[in-house]
Design brief:
This protein has about 300 residues and is an alpha/beta fold. The chain has 10 helices and 8 strands. It has a single domain, classed as Rossmann fold. Helix 6 packs antiparallel against helix 8 and helix 9 runs antiparallel to helix 10. The longest helix is centred in the C-terminal third of the chain and has 30 residues.
């Protein structure tokens, strides 16, 4: 487990000036903590020296070929318990920036992380808002898709997930969408042969049993809250939502913080979650209203 690289003072100064860093390290205990970071690639979260961090990805060589990629300490596909892989001692915080959309079984992945956090420990996510990036032409993921992936205990993207990603990804950048371009009118990323390409890629991955990274899940802040509400009613979502940060003007990601609550009966957990969702939904409404008012000035 490697410690962070910044002094505490440098980290606090950087976090005060960087909203993204502040959101990814929300409720992280200081000056010392044990943490996990998922899929850091070439952009590991800058952390203070007192934070001992271990990295997790679907394979130990997941960052191979990326200049400056962080070394991976533990390989985990998101299927099955995480504790046997990272050890039994509980962690204080987990960070996953632009990772959850790639996880084939999102509910299983969340349960695994929940199982290695201490009571009160937090998972901080950044997630792509489909409206402002290449997933803009895709519909938001459904509860049925979430349940299917969990029942199948997917360790690799399914043919449906691969096909949806490869066939519908559009050649459009966030700045073009914010400038007023219609992303649905943008060409498919794979061109006119996108459908045939997507079918061939999904069929080949299925036949070979290979892992092909793709956006398995498509969210907006509101659709994510809806998925959490449905999964909670089914007893499939173990965390309690803590905070949500809407997509900022010019950006393409939103932020969610969730905590492992003290052990509670399922009905008590559901009441906590219902209250959190109502509260956070109200925050999203106010954030949209503020953004609309600012855009009109």
């Amino acid at each position: 487990m490697r410690p962070g690289s910044l002094s505490l003072d440098d980290f606090l100064a950087r976090r005060a000036a960087d909203r993204r860093l502040a959101r990814l390290t929300h409720d992280m205990p200081l000056p010392e903590a044990r943490g996990l970071e998922f899929g850091p690639g070439a952009n590991p979260t800058p952390l203070p020296a007192g934070v001992r961090i271990a990295t997790v990805d679907h394979a130990l060589d997941a960052g191979a070929g990326l200049p400056g990629a962080a070394p991976i300490d533990h390989a985990w596909t998101g299927a099955g318990p995480l504790a046997p892989i990272v050890g039994p001692e509980p962690y204080d915080v987990a960070i996953a920036a632009q990772v959850a959309q790639y996880v084939p079984n999102l509910l299983g992945w969340l349960r695994g992380i929940h199982g290695v956090l201490r009571p009160g420990g937090v998972l901080n996510l950044s997630l792509p808002d489909r409206r402002f990036m290449f997933d803009a032409a895709r519909p938001a993921s459904t509860l049925a898709e979430l349940v299917e992936a969990d029942l199948l205990d997917l360790a690799r993207p399914s043919p449906r997930q691969l096909f949806a990603h490869a066939s519908e990804a559009r050649a459009v950048a966030p700045e073009q969408i914010w400038a007023g371009e219609d992303p649905a009118a943008a060409p498919r990323l794979a061109g006119e042969a996108a459908l045939a390409h997507a079918y061939a890629e999904a069929a080949a991955a299925l036949a070979a049993g290979t892992y092909v990274p793709c956006h398995c899940w498509v969210f907006t802040p509101d659709s994510f809250l809806d998925l959490v509400a449905g999964a909670t009613r089914l007893g499939l979502f173990p965390f309690v939502l803590n905070r949500i940060g809407a997509t900022e003007v010019g950006g393409f990601e939103f932020y969610v913080s969730m905590r492992r609550d003290a052990e509670a009966e399922p009905e008590a957990l559901r009441r906590l979650q219902d209250g959190a969702i109502d509260y956070l939904g109200g925050i999203l409404v106010r954030q949209r209203r503020t953004a609309t008012l600012l855009a009109g000035r």
